[in-house]
């Protein structure tokens, strides 16, 4: 830990950096602060695990990061520099974000000379935090030789001269048994790979120091919260696809930290019942980051949620409808698929396919994608022996051995600049359906050849096979047509018009109903953002309101609940909708 004077100089340098910045950084944590020959530098935004416990309460609640949020993070980093532990202790990200929102910071071990200043930085109210420039000025002055131990923390006062009800910071020196964090001082982390371990930080004026593996080293930024199975080595990323490049450029803004907090703080917000929607009475929204994919476990006990902005898969416990686990993966997921026995979850990402052992919630292996391929949609054969990935950058589907994740075949389904987007396997495993621009291809899995083709009026398509094995359904994000195909012959047997642009698909376990996430063409549409298609009458028979603007859909095996989330950049959250009347 730093001495009080070293801590003062470090805080002054960091405050000067913030004051001189042209905008908010939005990502200050021990992992991003680096000593250089010219002083303190702040690098890129931290990972999800590294940021938890250092973000301001308003950011953890979903508000944009601003200069006041950076001051909060500065105060939290000063606590770590002084004590080796952040102001909200240690633990899994979900615990740390919870304490940030509900508990008071523990400042008992902060040097008395700085305790009031740090308490000011950690105020729950952004407008009551000092400016970075003021902090730089205050910290530039040497400490008074007078004994500072008598300093106490005075609660911030509002304009009426009264302390806010929830802003009293208890920062008096305490014993470990009496620390007032509102939670155990150092709880055990349920997910060890996400725990940021304390480290001794020793700095001398003559030598810039960056302790290994923690404070902003290249090693720390390369480290993943996942232990990969040797001898696999994950290489540097290749150039991203044009489509993903646009998305990644957008997420590079400081908002990457804003919604990372929302991922970890699993709060279920009950919404009032809507008289026009019977399902609204039992609808809930689970706070998450922006979602890239959804998958459900075969037993229906877990919903897996891929994050578009972070290399994380969240696990929703369907009993409590809360996030129970966060699993680090090599890259941001683009697709998720659970094995039929529920033992494994397969994750496609920009440059790799990885596998999670669901019993331990850990990544046990990853394989690198072929050059020119970006795994997008992913499916598992019913017997669990093969993986199928839509190649994203080209009109091919890659077949992989599920055990090794190594490619065993590449199946062309088109030509030119077309790209495969989605794949779905039939329940008997004999056929695989894949979508590309203008076409749906049926692949014979025994011969790895295309056995049938059907016209398709879109680009970004979704495809799903009915559990009864009779039909396959496909939609495009850029059309209002549902395509119905025979699962055995691959021939199109019909189409159905929808009232908006389709963005997601799910079929009930009985095969009777298809649920279609549908964006309205106009704001006056009131039927809902999820259409219910009756496969017997081949008509739309109802509409559901998810409350989040549905894009991705998943249904529990008993057919009683539908989980819906917006498309990547539309919004956040996963809605839980009662669909038992359609089971």
Poorly predicted runs are 147-282
Radius of gyration: 26 Å
User: What class, by secondary structure content?
Assistant: alpha+beta
The count of helical stretches stands at: 10
Strand tally is 31
Distance between the termini: 60 Å
Shape: elongated
How many strands, what sense, and barrel or not for the largest sheet? 5 strands, antiparallel
> β content, as a range?
25-35%
Q: Could you tell me the mean pLDDT?
A: 75
Helical percentage:
10-25%
Q: Biggest sheet, strands in spatial order?
A: 3-4-31-30-29
Write the layout of secondary structure elements.
Layout: H1 4-20, E1 33-36, E2 39-42, H2 48-51, H3 57-60, H4 67-83, H5 93-102, H6 112-121, H7 132-140, H8 218-222, H9 242-251, H10 255-264, E3 268-270, E4 284-286, E5 291-296, E6 302-307, E7 312-317, E8 322-328, E9 333-338, E10 344-349, E11 352-357, E12 362-368, E13 378-380, E14 386-390, E15 396-401, E16 407-412, E17 422-425, E18 431-436, E19 439-444, E20 449-455, E21 461-465, E22 471-476, E23 481-486, E24 492-497, E25 500-507, E26 513-520, E27 530-534, E28 539-544, E29 552-555, E30 561-565, E31 574-578
């Amino acid at each position: 830990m730093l001495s009080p004077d070293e801590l003062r100089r470090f805080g002054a340098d960091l405050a000067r950096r913030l004051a001189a910045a042209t905008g908010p950084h939005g990502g200050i944590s021990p992992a991003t602060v680096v000593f250089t020959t010219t002083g303190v530098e702040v690098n890129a935004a931290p990972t999800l695990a590294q940021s938890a416990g250092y973000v301001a309460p308003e950011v953890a609640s979903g508000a944009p990061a601003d200069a006041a949020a950076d001051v909060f993070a500065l105060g939290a980093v000063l606590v770590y520099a002084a004590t080796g532990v952040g102001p909200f202790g240690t633990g899994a990200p979900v615990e740390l974000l919870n304490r940030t929102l509900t508990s008071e910071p523990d400042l008992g071990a902060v040097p008395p000379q700085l305790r009031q200043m740090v308490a000011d930085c950690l105020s729950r109210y952004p407008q009551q935090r000092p400016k970075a420039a003021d902090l730089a000025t205050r910290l530039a002055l040497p400490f008074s030789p007078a004994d500072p131990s008598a300093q106490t923390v005075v609660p911030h006062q509002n304009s009426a001269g009264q302390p806010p009800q929830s802003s009293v910071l208890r920062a008096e020196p305490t014993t470990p048994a009496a620390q007032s964090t509102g939670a155990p001082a150092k709880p055990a982390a349920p997910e060890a790979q996400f725990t940021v371990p304390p480290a001794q930080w020793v700095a001398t004026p003559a030598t810039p120091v960056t302790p290994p593996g923690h404070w902003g080293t290249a090693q720390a930024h390369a480290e993943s919260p996942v232990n990969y199975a040797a001898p696999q080595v994950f290489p540097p990323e290749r150039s991203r696809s044009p489509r993903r490049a646009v998305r990644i450029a957008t997420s590079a803004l400081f908002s990457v930290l804003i919604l990372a907090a929302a991922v970890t703080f699993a709060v279920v917000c009950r919404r009032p019942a809507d008289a026009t929607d019977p399902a609204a009475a039992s609808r809930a929204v689970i706070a998450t980051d922006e979602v890239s994919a959804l998958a459900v476990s075969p037993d229906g006990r877990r919903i897996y949620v891929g994050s578009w902005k972070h290399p994380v898969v969240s696990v929703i416990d369907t009993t409590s409808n809360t996030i129970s686990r966060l699993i680090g993966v090599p890259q941001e997921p683009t697709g998720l698929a659970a094995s039929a026995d529920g033992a494994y979850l397969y994750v496609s990402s920009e440059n790799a396919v990885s596998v999670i052992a669901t019993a331990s919630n850990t990544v046990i292996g990853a394989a690198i994608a072929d050059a020119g391929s970006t795994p997008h949609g992913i499916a598992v054969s019913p017997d669990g022996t093969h993986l199928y990935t839509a190649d994203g950058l080209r009109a091919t589907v890659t077949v992989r051995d599920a055990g090794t994740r190594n490619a065993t075949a590449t199946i062309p389904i088109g030509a030119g600049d077309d790209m495969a987007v989605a794949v779905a396997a039939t329940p008997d495993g004999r056929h695989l359906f894949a979508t590309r621009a203008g076409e749906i291809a049926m692949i014979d899995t025994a011969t790895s050849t295309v056995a049938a083709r059907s016209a398709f009026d879109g680009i970004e398509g979704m495809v799903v096979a009915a559990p009864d094995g009779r039909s396959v359904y496909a939609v495009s994000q850029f059309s209002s047509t549902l395509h119905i195909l025979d699962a055995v012959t691959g021939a199109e047997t019909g189409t159905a018009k929808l009232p908006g642009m389709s963005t997601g698909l799910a079929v009930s376990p009985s095969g009777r109903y298809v649920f279609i996430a549908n964006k309205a063409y106009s704001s006056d549409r009131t039927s809902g953002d999820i259409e219910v298609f009756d496969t017997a009458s081949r008509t739309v028979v109802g509409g559901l309101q998810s409350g989040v603007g549905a894009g991705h859909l998943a249904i529990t095996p008993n057919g009683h609940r539908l989980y819906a989330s917006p498309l990547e950049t539309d919004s956040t959250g996963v809605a839980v909708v009662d669909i038992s009347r359609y089971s």
